Each structure stands twice: as C-alpha cells, then as structure tokens.
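Support request, priority: normal
Reporter: lab tech (M.K.)
Component: structure prediction queue

Hi team, I submitted a job for 3-hydroxyacyl-CoA dehydrogenase from Streptomyces venezuelae yesterday, and the status page still shows it as pending. I've pasted the exact input below so you can check whether something in the sequence is tripping the parser. The sequence length should be 712 residues. Please let me know if I need to resubmit or if it's stuck on your end.
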Amino acid sequence: MSTTAELLKGAAELFPDEVVTSAHVRHLDLPFGAGRFALVTLDNGFDHTKPTTFGPQSLANLNAAIDQVEQEALAGSIVGAGITGKPFIFAVGADLKGVELLKNHDEALAIGKGGHDVFKRLSALAVPTFAYYNGAAMGGGVEVGLHCTYRTVSKAIPAFSLPEVFLGLVPGWGGCALLPNLIGAERAVSVIIENSLNQNKQLRGKQVFDLGIADALFEGADFLEQSLLWTANVLNGTTEVVRDEIDRGEAWDAAVAKGRFIADSKVHGAAPAAYRALDIIAAAKDGDLQAGFDAEDTALADLIMGGELRSGIYAFNLVQKRAKRPAGAPDKSLARPVTKVGVVGAGLMASQLALLFLRRLEVPVVLTDIDQERVDKGVGYVHAEIQKLLGKGRINQDKANRLTALVTGVLDKAEGFADADFIIEAVFEEMSVKQKVFAEVEAVAPAHAILATNTSSLSVSEMASKLQHPERVVGFHFFNPVAILPLLEIVRGEQTDDASLATAFGVAKKLKKTAVLTKDAPAFVVNRILTRFMGEIQNVIDEGTPVVTAEKAIEPLGLPMSPLVLLELVGPAIGLHVSETLNRAFPERFTVSPNLAAVVKAGKRGFYVYSAENGFKPELDPEVAALLVQGDVVLTEEQVRDRVLDAVAQEIGLMLEEGVVAEAQDIDLCLITGAGWPFHLGGITPYLDREGVSERVNGKKFLAPGLASVPA
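Reply from support: The job had stalled in the queue. We restarted it manually and it finished. Here are the results:
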C-alpha cells in the first residue's frame, strides 16, 4: 500500500513543469489570550495574475506543513490552525496542465486519492481548523476549506466556485460529499451542478456566506485581522457557530432530482460529469464521508480518462490562452490610437455597438442615420442603458454623467466623422447599401480612420473595392447579444493592411472581446458552419423527416438550444439571407429551403409556439405545419445525426483547406465563444474526432493525438 508521500512523489515525476505552491507555516498569538495559533499560507511565489494551484508537489508541500502542525497540536503547543492564500487568491484548484498528462486509470486514481489524503488530515487534527477564503477560490481551493472545522470569507472575493462539472469532472477532493452535508443537498446542487452548467457562474463573498459555506463574512481591507479576532472568540467560546440543520429526508431526494432535470435540460445526457456528481451527492445523504470520498476518487479517475474532460480542458485552454494571443494578428505596435468612434446606423445592433464602445473605450461615440427620429432613438437607447447601469450600482453618478455626455447623434456624416479614428457600419445587410455608406464615409473621414463593417456574411473585399483606400477596411463581426457573446470575427479583406488590422485587434482587446482572425470567405466561420449544420437539418425536414425527429437527433451533442429554437433567436429572415449568400458561393453544398422561405414569407417568427398549458415548451406552430411541403423520405434520429455531422465535418475540412482560419482550434474557439457550444464538446472538432466522423469524411482527424484526447 503506497503512502500519500509516495503517491505524490510518483505523480510529481510525471509533471516536471508544475508551478509549485508552497505552504508556509507561521505562528502567532491570538488576541484575547486565546493562545498560540499556526497559520498556513498557500503561495506559488507569483502575483495574483498567476493563481495558486495544487499539483502533486504542491499537495506534498501542504502535506509536509500539516505534518508539522499535527505534531504541534498533539504536543499541545497550538490551540488551532488556519489556512489562507496570497493577496487576492486563496487557491484555484487542481493544476489542469498536470491532469492533461495522465495516461492511465491508476495515475488518475492516485491524483484523486492524493488530494483526499492530504485534505482529510485537516479535519483529523487534534485542534479546530479554520479556512480564511481571502481571495478567488475554485475547485480544490474551495474543497481544502471544506475539510476545515470553520470558514470565513472576504466580501471582496469576485470568484468562488466548484467549476468541475463545467469542465467535465466532479468536485473530487471532497466537494460532492462535504458540501451537501454542510449546507444541504439543494444548495449544494445549485453550486455544483446549476452554476457549473450555467456557463460556470461564480459566487461572490456575500453569496458564499448566505449559502452557509462560510461561518463569517468580513470586509476585504482587514479581512485576515478580523478573521483572527473572530477565531479567538470562537476558541474562547465567546462566539458560537450555529448552522442550519440538514434535511436528510425527501428534500435531499428532491434536490438530486432537480439536479438531474437541470443536467438533462443542459446536456441531454450527452456529458457524464453532472450525473456522476449527482450520484455521489445522492449517496452522501447518510453522512458517510469516507464512502463519498472513495466514490469521488473513482468518478474522478473515470472522467480523467474520458473524452469529455480532455475536450473540456482543451476548450478551457482555448478560451484562457489562445484567445489572448490571436493566431495571425499583426504586431500590436502597428496599431493606431482610437480617440473617437463613429457608428453608421442607429438601429438596435448599432445602438448596442455604440454602448459597448462607449463603456469600454470611454471616448466620444457619434451615431448617424437617415433621419433625426432614428438618430434620437439610437442615442436614447444608449442613455437608457447607462441609467440602468447606474440603477444597478454598476457605475456611479459621475461616471453615468460622463458616459452620457460622450454619446451624441448627428445626421451629417461630415460633422460626425471628420475627426473619428474608427468608424463601424451596422446598416442593412445588402452589398449596394454598404458600398454606398462606405463611399460617403470615406469622403468625410480622416485618412487614417479605420472603416469597419459588422457584416455577417458579405464580402469585405467587395465592399471595399470601389474605395480610394480599400486597405483600411476591415470586417468586425459581432454576435448578438453584443454585451454577452464574447466572439468578434475580425476579417482581413484582400487589400486590408497590417496597420488597420492591428488597430482592429487593439480595439477588440479594449472591448474585452475574443478576437479571431478570419479570411474574407463567405459567412466567415460561425455563420458558415451553423448554416451548413442548420441547412442539413432543413434538408431532412424538406425530404420528409418529421420536425421532432430532426430536432431530437441533435440532442446527444448537448447544445445550448435545438437548431430550430436557435433559428428563432437568429430570426428566420436572417437565416434565409445567409443561406442564400452561401448558396450563391457554394451551390453544391448549401441549399435554400423552400419551406424556410415560406415561413419567412408568412412573417412567422419561427417554427414553434409556446403556451402556459404546455409549460412553455416548444410546439410546432399549426400555421407553420400547414405551410410545410415535405417529401416521403423519413430518416431515423441516427441517420439524421450522421448526415448533419458528416456535413459539418466536410465543411470544416474545406474551410481549413481554404485557410479561412489558421487551425482547427480557431474553429472551436469561434463556436464556443460565438455560438455557445459546450465546453464538454471542446467546440466541435474533438467531438467529430472522437465519434470517428472526421476520418469517415476527411480521412484524418482534425487534431493531433493528446490535444483534446488522452495522450497515447
């Protein structure tokens, strides 16, 4: 039987590049004569921009610190022990770079067991233990504190979570067993399942306290001092910690059932992590913690060796790393400053863009449109949104006044754009209209100004072709809703120069968007893939497959919404327009559905209607059903899925051959950040590789072995 130290030593040898966290032990005399106290501080030696993690050597260091504290507790030389983090960071969990390297079930099991063996020792000490959540705490960082007797939390914490299910894991160092036994199953399911599957929602300090995870809440400025005063009072008996009694009856079972409903609605059974976590929470009802820890070890090892986690880590690395260094972006030193922004158009999309530029750049923003009423409406929208931010306490009155003063609207482009550095159009999606707008803008804008288009599918090169300076035109395609979806497709036209492109990337960074460089190809990345995807669904419906079968066929992908609900969100008319654009470019692969055209002609908002009697679930609109003209070829769900996935794999293969983006990773980054495709798929290419679709269609996988899969 290996000891914990031997387990961790073996694991550390697999992971020589670990950023090692130290566990410093220092001693202090608590106030009010409460006695001598041991405080362990977790610190990897870097500032808050490199958060503290637990790799095998880091766990070994914490284990050694606990050795020392254990001896002192047994000798009676301390009255308690605490654990805290470096400034702004408590600890953010297991080091995922190490998890990626694990090649077999035994190695994965050792990581789970190693963490448990170390953390469990905190609850087994002969003195009370305290966790002081002073800064960001996630995953194993939260769990190490759950093993302590008491916990305090800082009001200033911006991020506290158990994000494992989001990535394709379970909280595997005590979270699934300990949290429901601390705060009850319903609240634990909310933190472990619901928040994770809700785009990894984070808790703030007060929420952590309100949920009962922490026993006391203190201001950030003197958090540790206040925590130690509180600790002294707890140890003296002056302060008594009272926790809610846990309901281990029907409420526990109802919470687990609710968790399964949430998981079904989000991933449709397609990703195992949420269900494994719920099984452990269900079994934790009897309070047998060791059985829970053993179940966590097994689940952790199984999931580490599965494709979902590898895809989840791959997706995490795309969003956290690749997104910060866009492939193909020019040297940022070429970027020009942007001190004023012009927006052509004052409709909803243009107004959203104006608000975003205003909030992030805090420079003058001017809108223009064809009549005063539209201009006033656009400026009014921005002003109203600023007032909402003020009402929610997101900005103060001074900032609200400043932002309100910075946004204006004019009819005369010469007046509005004569000193603008960056001008973006968001007018009707028609080439002749956009060319006319750009000609008018070029006539009045300064020579250095960037002319950007928010087109979703039209050629940027053609749009710029009649200008005197086409080199300053760039595609700047946002996704709706602008404030929420992070993706920004930056399109390089045939004549776009490096300075214009660098300026566009510089602006994107200030807007806090994930910028991906794309070639000027029809519909760029997301809309091209989604249109091929949706087009194939539409084809099978047109040929005769029932709508419900076509929709259900895609459920195993665990997408955020079904294809026809997505069409409703995008708008059938826009969907039709993009399919017509792509049909003109690639008639052999992109069809224009007569049924979709009929739905648009009839002015329908989508294929579905929703009623309170049916719990607002989508039901095929009888009026739409009457419009549908279908053939007699009826496919099974599996046949539909194969056809759709084959079409998507073919399209991605062609896009990579055309050089639309640098690599398959950029396709996945676009789908995750622009279309909300789930982390557990890794976007789309890891899933196509894993299911054998890539090789069936293209004769090869999209990704190298080990990139989003278990290393060979």
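The first helix runs from residue 4 to 14. The first strand starts at residue 22 and ends at 30. Let us know if anything else looks off. Ticket resolved.
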